[in-house]
């Protein structure tokens, strides 16, 4: 087992899949010679050449659209959006085309492509380099949305996404890229898309989250453990479609639920998680469902004081956990 | 196509006049005005990079090498015209009248930095690529409908020509005969991607043909050529002749942003032959007896003082107040957001 950063695990997953299957190729802005603005594709241009690591013209809509054409033909494209914030010109291609192809062709066609996009804040990226945009896509049947939290999950889920026969939006938290490190097996493995994962067993309260929020929750849980409060942490991993059973099970287990997302509070993925719990586990709850999220302002500001306020962190999660535990 | 769209220039690298038809218009006052602004925005730019390196400014997009394009085009504007800049066009903004301290504040992530002076029609810089082109068409068309003679200039780079919004914006403006100057700075790289990988067209100017508007290719490092071609296009626009696409061929001397390292993707000697636009103008001025050493010393001191004052002001600004983060989402604050703000203020009181 090697100790890898989150971004290295992503690079490794792409490299292994490209070695395994020559239908797999990458297209995106600056992904070739430069190796991507975050270096997620570093070394791949040298290893696989410019036909499989394509420095695309600056056109997100066409990067996805060309990918869709190649995917329907039978290739396995990995389209990189430089920042999730810049995915917007491609929304038409992703929603109107990629996620509708199987259904509208009565299963005659499908679109096996991955769209990778770094998202999230805490990197002094300002308004257009910090946003969480997953909720924009999280009610589009036909599309899967994966957000890994650890290097192990990132490798296994990205490999599964590349092999998936349907389009997968793969959001990577850019603050996690070099911050989060972990053991990654050298052998080939995949992780099933659509399955949440218990990252910590606990008895007193449940935290449901994804991405960087998982690490904040785990850190806060350590602090509460010292006071004898046991926290259960569920990592959604796939935020669309949700792992309903795992959510209900985790909520019922402790009867107290804290939902954590960095996205704006109103209309986030956590709103749906909350609805699932309300529908299926209301009478197992000992406290109202609690949400910790970003404020309902358009985007993360750049000024340090404001960025710090906007971001979720272990302290904020700890405070919310203690409030819930004391209910 | 390159022969159909030759690069127009008025002075060459040595500062010699190569288009005699402009001789009478190349007077000392114009040369001095162009030189002063180019010198000023370069000082702003170099200071910004140095502040960023010292951790006193956020990630910054340098524009060194593009001074002639930005100053020449901005000086061609009328006072009431509209400017649609990108994140690299702060040189044009400064020349058009954006205060230096606000421009530094913008690069320090302050919302105050996005507010142009009263009466100056400068849109907030566009960060998503090419999104401002349709805006320029819309604003210019509205001016036309109102019956004014005001026009709009939309700045964008070579990478932006690949986006749908570029094509849609040009087409729309052309159909509406909107008074827009689509001013492209082809600095030959979109981050790491060279123009040859961006498009299979020989020029950007030729794209104008598809939309039924004039396309002009100019030497973007020749400030005179930029100034006079921009003036002409704006004049056409004002007179109801619709939009023009200008491709100013220039060169980004430095990195895409302070977070980028061009040595990873640009050959070391590439661009070395390009004569600095300020040096080029200096050569012209020396050859035409409008180079005045005393004046140079004077403006250098003036610019140095302006930059220092602006930096001091920027740094003495009070820290961003988190309370302000909740404001201006809507004209009237929704209940949920008001609650979030109250909860924050209560949290502050509790300490």
UniProtKB/TrEMBL annotation, chain A:
<protein>
    <submittedName>
        <fullName>2-oxoisovalerate dehydrogenase</fullName>
    </submittedName>
</protein>
<keyword id="KW-0786">Thiamine pyrophosphate</keyword>
<dbReference type="GO" id="GO:0016491">
    <property type="term" value="F:oxidoreductase activity"/>
</dbReference>
<dbReference type="Pfam" id="PF02780">
    <property type="entry name" value="Transketolase_C"/>
</dbReference>
<dbReference type="Pfam" id="PF02779">
    <property type="entry name" value="Transket_pyr"/>
</dbReference>
<dbReference type="InterPro" id="IPR009014">
    <property type="entry name" value="Transketo_C/PFOR_II"/>
</dbReference>
<keyword id="KW-0560">Oxidoreductase</keyword>
<dbReference type="InterPro" id="IPR033248">
    <property type="entry name" value="Transketolase_C"/>
</dbReference>
<dbReference type="InterPro" id="IPR005475">
    <property type="entry name" value="Transketolase-like_Pyr-bd"/>
</dbReference>
<dbReference type="InterPro" id="IPR029061">
    <property type="entry name" value="THDP-binding"/>
</dbReference>
């Amino acid at each position: 087992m090697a100790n890898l950063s989150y971004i290295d695990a992503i690079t490794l997953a792409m490299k292994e899949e490209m070695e395994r299957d020559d239908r797999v190729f990458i297209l995106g802005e600056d992904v070739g010679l430069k190796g991507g603005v975050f270096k997620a594709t570093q070394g791949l241009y040298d290893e696989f050449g410019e036909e499989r690591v394509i420095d695309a013209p600056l056109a997100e809509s066409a990067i996805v659209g060309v990918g869709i054409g190649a995917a329907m033909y039978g290739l396995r494209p990995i389209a990189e959006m430089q920042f999730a914030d810049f995915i917007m010109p491609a929304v038409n291609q992703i929603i109107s085309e990629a996620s509708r192809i199987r259904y509208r062709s009565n299963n005659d066609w499908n679109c096996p492509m991955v769209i990778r996009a770094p998202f999230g804040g805490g990197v002094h990226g300002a308004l257009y380099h910090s946003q969480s945009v997953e909720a924009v896509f999280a009610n589009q049947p036909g599309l899967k949305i994966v957000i890994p939290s650890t290097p192990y999950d990132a490798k296994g889920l990205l490999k599964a996404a590349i092999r998936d026969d349907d389009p997968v939006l793969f959001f990577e938290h850019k603050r996690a890229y070099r911050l989060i490190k972990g053991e990654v097996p050298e052998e080939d493995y995949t992780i099933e898309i659509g399955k949440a994962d218990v990252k910590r067993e606990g008895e007193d309260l449940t935290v449901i989250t994804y991405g960087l929020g998982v690490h904040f929750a785990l850190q806060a849980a350590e602090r509460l453990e010292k006071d004898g409060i046991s926290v259960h942490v569920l990592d959604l991993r796939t935020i669309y479609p949700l792992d309903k059973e795992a959510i209900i099970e985790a909520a019922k287990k402790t009867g107290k639920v804290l939902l954590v997302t960095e996205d704006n509070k109103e209309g986030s993925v956590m709103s749906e998680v909350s609805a699932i719990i309300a529908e299926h586990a209301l009478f197992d709850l000992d406290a109202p469902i609690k949400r910790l999220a970003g404020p309902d302002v358009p985007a993360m500001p750049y000024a340090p004081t404001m960025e710090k306020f906007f971001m979720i962190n272990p302290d904020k999660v700890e405070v919310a956990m203690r409030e819930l535990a004391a209910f | 196509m390159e022969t159909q769209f030759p690069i127009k220039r008025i002075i060459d690298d040595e500062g010699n006049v190569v288009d005699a038809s402009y001789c009478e218009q190349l007077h000392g006052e114009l040369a001095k005005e162009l030189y002063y602004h180019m010198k000023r925005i370069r000082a702003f730019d170099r200071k910004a990079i140095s502040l960023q390196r010292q951790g006193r400014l956020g990630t910054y997009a340098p524009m060194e090498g593009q001074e002639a394009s930005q100053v020449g085009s901005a000086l061609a504007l009328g006072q009431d015209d509209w400017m649609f800049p990108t994140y690299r066009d702060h040189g044009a903004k400064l020349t058009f009248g954006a205060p230096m301290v606000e421009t530094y504040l913008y690069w320090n992530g302050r919302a105050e930095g996005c507010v142009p002076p009263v009466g100056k029609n400068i849109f907030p810089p566009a960060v998503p690529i090419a999104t401002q082109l349709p805006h320029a068409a819309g604003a210019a068309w509205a001016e036309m409908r109102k019956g004014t003679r005001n026009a709009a200039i939309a700045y964008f780079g070579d990478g932006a020509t690949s986006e749908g919004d570029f094509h849609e914006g040009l087409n729309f403006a052309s159909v509406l005969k909107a008074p827009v100057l689509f001013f492209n700075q082809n600095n030959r790289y979109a981050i790491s991607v060279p123009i040859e990988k961006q498009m299979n067209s020989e020029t950007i100017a030729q794209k104008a043909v598809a939309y039924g508007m004039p396309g002009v290719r100019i030497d973007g490092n020749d400030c005179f050529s930029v100034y006079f071609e921009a003036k002409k296009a704006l004049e056409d626009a004002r007179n109801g002749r619709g939009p023009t696409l200008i491709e100013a061929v220039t060169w980004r001397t430095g990195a895409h942003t302070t977070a980028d390292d061009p040595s990873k993707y640009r050959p070391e000697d590439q661009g070395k032959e390009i004569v600095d636009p300020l040096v080029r103008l200096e050569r012209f001025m020396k050859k035409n007896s409008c180079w005045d050493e005393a004046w140079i010393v004077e403006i250098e001191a003036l610019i140095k003082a302006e930059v220092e004052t602006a930096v001091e002001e920027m740094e003495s600004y009070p820290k961003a107040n988190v309370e302000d983060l909740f404001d201006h989402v809507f004209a009237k604050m929704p209940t949920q957001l008001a609650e979030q703000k109250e909860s924050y203020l209560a949290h502050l009181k509790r300490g």
